[in-house]
Amino acid sequence: TDSETDGTWKWVDGTRMTTRDKLISLHLQTFLGFFFFPLTGCLREWMHFNGSLYYISSNKKSWQESRNDCLQRGADLVIINSKEEQEFTRNFQKLIWIGLTDSEKEGIWKWVDGSLLVTSYWATFEPNGVPQRDEDCAEIKNFHFPNNWNDESCDLERVWICEKKLAT
Description:
The protein is an alpha+beta fold. Helix content is 19%, strand content 21%.
């Protein structure tokens, strides 16, 4: 609200909205047609979008270490199940681990919740499963394109997105 001083926006806990908060919100609204809002308290570093909370890491880890971090936060790696969610995650413009793997059986891609991949956003010629690289984990790679998933070695270090579904 800016009820105290017109143009000075504050969160419900009284903290001022940062320039980063404003820029991200404006960018998402302008290019994607939606708003997000960071939360207060211990969830302040999370963003809300379409019924889920999202945490975007600032450091890099392997796919499994990234997943472990999400689980410690009471979440899991992001499961992308709509075009809107794909656009939301793509907007961060980084190499990002998502919660998709074919580590159980080569070529059978499953989300971290065990569900099979139905709708995908693979980049052209992906997944290509280069054998000597053991590419069993999915990342967002070419964020300039709508279809930008790439299969990659799970041991490489990337930033990641955790998703925590909100109760409906």
